[in-house]
């Protein structure tokens, strides 16, 4: 039977990781509002904060993986066995706690994935809008056709764009 302290440490790591993902979810929800309002300054600040939390999450994931590998070893499982397999071999109160925190973490990550999908679509739409406007400004200015006495089209000069681009 594994050391109780080892299982507790794994659950603590999972809880800390869950809290970070909760914070990331809150930031993602704020980011949606910021993207809708086109507030680039706030978007930059949120992205920076998100990066810090993502770095913390990476560190916690490494710690969690170490504890999970040690627990799996103690239970006689392969080091990379899933937590579900470990739950089956743990005593009831520990197995239930581990299942609970794992379910909460999974649910939060799913919500975060959905929110990030929405944010990605908003960013893609904004980039398409910016690209469309740049193409409008960089393209030649529309001009009406001018016809001569013979009925053929007469060129009125070089077509210029709104942007003066020189190479």
UniProtKB/TrEMBL annotation:
Pfam families attached to this UniProt entry: FlgN (PF05130)
Recorded superkingdom: Bacteria
Keyword set, alphabetical order: Bacterial flagellum biogenesis, Coiled coil
Protein's name according to its UniProt entry: FlgN protein
Coiled-coil residue windows: 46-73
Presence of keyword Coiled coil: yes
Keyword Hydrolase in record: no
GO terms under biological process: bacterial-type flagellum assembly
InterPro entries: FlgN-like, FlgN-like_sf
